Amino acid sequence: MHRRTFRATLIALTLALAAFGVAACGSSNSSSTSSTSSTASSGKKIKVGLVTDIGGLNDRSFNHLADVGLMDAQSKLGAQGRVLESHSDADYIPNLTTLASQHYDLVIGVGFLMADAVDTVAKKFPNTKFAIIDSDVTTMKGKPQNVEGLLFKEQEAGYLVGYLSGLYAKDNKITTVSSVGGQKIPPVDHYIAGFQAGAKKADPSIKTLNAYSQDFVDQAKCKELALNQIAQGSKVVFQVAGACGLGALDAAKEESVQGMGVDADQAYIGPQVFTSALKKVDVAVYDAIKGVQGGAYKGGQDVTSTVANDGIGYGKLNATAQKYATQVKKVKSEIASGQISNIPDTVK
Question: For the sheet containing 80-84, what is the strand order?
Answer without folding.
Answer: 80-84, 47-51, 106-110, 129-133, 147-152, 302-305
